[in-house]
Every structure is written in structure tokens, then in C-alpha cells.
Amino acid sequence: xxxxxxxxxxxxxxxxxxxxxxxxxxxxxxxxxxxxxxxxxxxxxxxxxxxxxxxxxxxxxxxxxxxxxxxxxxxxxxxxxxxxxxxxxxxxxxxxxxxxxxxxxxxxxxxxxxxxxxxxxxxxxxxxxxxxxxxxxxxxxxxxxxxxxxxxxxxxxxxxxxxxxxxxxxxxxxxxxxxxxxxxxxxxxxxxxxxxxxxxxxxxxxxxxxxxxxxxxxxxxxxxxxxxxxxxxxxxxxxxxxxxxxxxxxxxxxxxxxxxxxxxxxxxx
Length: 269
Description:
CATH class: Alpha Beta
Structural class: alpha/beta
CATH topology: Rossmann fold
Number of strands: 7
Order of helices and strands: EHEHEHEHEHEHEHH
């Protein structure tokens, strides 16, 4: 592009996406898709060396893709990574709080309460801590996308998944609250609830997974939802209909339909 005032060539700034949980699964697929769409990337994961190896394998130059090692369940670590991103790469256009864990639990087992605490620390506090450093500067700029990755599992509680389902229900409500708070600021809050995606997170599931998607297909649809600024998108669309039916199902019918369902594996199983 040429400056009309000076005639000099001006290079347009590429949009920047900050993505947590980018070392595998949904996060990695979305990072690849956004990179292909012209975004610069700020990628976060506990396993920074794994991300570096992936960046090199994809031929991504460090000028386009920077890696930040941080555990989102540690508030100070993820806040520090976010501030480092702003200092090194500028304020992102899109922040995707994707990092999450899914482990089955049994409330009768004392150790599983510690599992529940870890899930909430990652899936809920980690979500808010990821957004925190960006809210004020995005509001001041008057633009941005804050994207929370929730789950269809947040629609109703499933046996053996009390911690995960409740954490994702909380993520949906949290993002909705933040969306209303930021209304008219220019900052859009987008909630994306995946159904079953073929990732390491789902491969240990011991029950049927209807409408199972490949991560690349999910990433294509998620990027469209992000750029459209959707308030809440369930992917794939078939799971959106399942979610609507689950909401309408009376408790008695829901209980009978799910009581014999295989439980999510607990830690160590």
C-alpha cells in the first residue's frame, strides 16, 4: 500500500492472534488455520519446546509466530505471557482462551476433589486470567475479539463428568457476562462450544461420539465464527440441535437416557 501523503510504500500490519493450549488438538489446528489466513501468531502452552518444534516443522518464521511457555492454571504465568506478547508483538486482534483439561471424577473419592480443583483452575480461572491483560487495552483501542472455547458438555451434566461439565457451563456463563459488560466497547466476546473433535482429549472417551469432527474442519468453522463476531457458536451444527433438545428434555427423561452411559475415565484409569 502507498501513502497518499509521501508516496512511500507502507506495509499493512497483519492481524495478531494469541492462542492458549496451542501445542495439540483444537488449539494447534486453529493456530495453523489462522496462520494460513494471514494472522501473526502468539502461541501459548505449558510445553514450550513442543510448540517450538511444531513451529519449525511448519516452516513458520519467528517473525510471524512467537512461542510463550506458560501454564494457564497459574495466574501469574499466563498474565506474564500476555504482557510479554503485548510488549514484543503488540496488542492482539484475537485472543483465544482454548487451554483446557477433561478428566472424569467420582465425588465419593477424596482425591477426585483435587482433580476438580485442577480442572476449575485451568478451565475457568485460566480462561479469565487469559483475557484479563487484554480487556482494558482492547476497550481503549475500541476493537478486538475475546474467544472462549467452551463445550457442548456445558449444556447438561453427564455421569462421571461433573467437574468437566460444570466447568464448561461456567465458561459459557462467564463469557456471556463478559460479552454484556463489553457491549458497545467495540470488543466482541465469542463463545465457541465444540462437540466431539478427534483430539487427544477425546480419544480416551469410552462412549459413542456422534458427529465426530477432524480438528482442521473444526478450525475452519471456528475461524468463520470468530471473524463474524458470533456471540455463541456450537460446532458442528448438528450438535447445536442436540444441545437444543437436551435443554428441552425434562429431567426425568434426561436422567433415564443418561444413567447407563459409560463414565468418563478418571485419572489413572
